[in-house]
């Protein structure tokens, strides 16, 4: 997947296709490659936008879910996007939730997959072990139902991050921020149609988390995918895209007119 990374001011992002914006937010160890199949599929019907979140570029005081949300907000304002279909995976879902709660006006729909915001098992406990590639490989494999999804390239990317002291400090700061920033009491305020797509074998944000989001977000629908872990759009892209396309198509249908 070779897409042009655009730059405007301090923002780096991918933008492909035309139509209503489908804005994708990646997670803590996420990258553009996480969304490869999704971009290819939806660039024919939407303007697919992926901002590169500054996970390691914010100062330590703003290295938080709130700091990332402010970055996304400024990016949306700069680009002038409206009627946005906002989608987030893992920490990206958490950022999407904080954003829609603070700035709902430009958002048309919300999609969460393996999102934090209520509960998550992080790399947590004994993390990080610098210099131990096998440990990092095992932790990366836990993201997926099929451990083969943790390719050498992916393991190398995570290993590189965990061997950089400053990046490790920022990852820990973001993980702690996510745990502190529990949104349970605020989710009832979300009015937009919301799609929840969860892997039945997600060990990081287990299936009960998807059920809890479904219970707390009023206008939400929940879909489980079997033999799938924490990143459905990577592990089962065909099924994920089918669920998302049906949801987005439903939003295009005109609302039934009501007589006052």
List the helices and strands and how they pair.
Blueprint: E1 6-8, E2 11-16, E3 21-25, H1 36-42, E4 47-51, H2 65-79, E5 84-89, H3 91-102, E6 107-113, H4 133-141, H5 152-162, H6 165-180, E7 194-199, H7 207-216, E8 220-225, H8 232-235, H9 237-252
Parallel strand pairs: 3-4, 3-5, 5-6, 6-7, 7-8
Antiparallel strand pairs: 1-2, 2-4
Helix pairs in contact: 1-9, 2-3, 4-5
Descriptive notes:
- The structure is a single chain.
- The protein is of the alpha/beta class and 260 residues long.
- Helix content is 38%, strand content 17%.
- It has an eight-stranded mixed sheet with strand order 1-2-4-3-5-6-7-8, with helices on both faces.
- The protein is globular, with a radius of gyration of 18 Å.
- The termini are far apart.
- The model is unreliable at 123-127 and 256-260 (pLDDT under 50).
């Amino acid at each position: 997947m070779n897409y042009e990374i655009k730059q405007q001011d301090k923002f780096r992002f991918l933008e492909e296709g035309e139509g209503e914006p489908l804005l994708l937010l990646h997670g803590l160890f996420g990258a553009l490659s996480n969304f490869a199949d999704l971009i290819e599929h939806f660039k024919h019907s939407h303007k697919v936008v992926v901002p590169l979140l500054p996970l390691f570029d914010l100062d330590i005081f703003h290295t938080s879910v709130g700091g990332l949300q402010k970055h996304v907000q400024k990016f949306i304002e700069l680009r002038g996007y409206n009627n946005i279909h906002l989608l987030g995976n893992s920490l990206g879902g958490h950022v999407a939730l904080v954003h829609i709660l603070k700035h709902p006006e430009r958002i048309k729909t919300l999609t969460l997959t393996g999102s934090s915001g209520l509960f998550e098992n992080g790399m947590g406990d004994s993390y990080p072990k610098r210099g131990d590639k096998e440990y990092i490989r095992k932790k990366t494999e836990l993201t997926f139902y099929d451990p083969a999804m943790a390719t050498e390239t992916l393991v190398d990317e995570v290993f590189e991050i965990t061997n950089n002291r400053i990046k490790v400090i920022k990852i820990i700061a973001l993980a702690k921020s996510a745990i502190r920033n529990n949104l349970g009491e605020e989710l009832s305020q979300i009015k937009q149609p919301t799609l929840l797509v969860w892997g039945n074998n997600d060990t990081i944000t287990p299936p009960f988390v998807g059920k809890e989001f479904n219970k707390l977000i009023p206008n939400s629908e929940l879909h489980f995918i079997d033999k799938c872990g924490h990143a459905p759009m990577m592990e089962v892209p065909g099924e994920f895209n089918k669920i998302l396309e049906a949801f987005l198509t439903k939003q295009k249908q005109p609302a039934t007119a009501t007589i006052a």
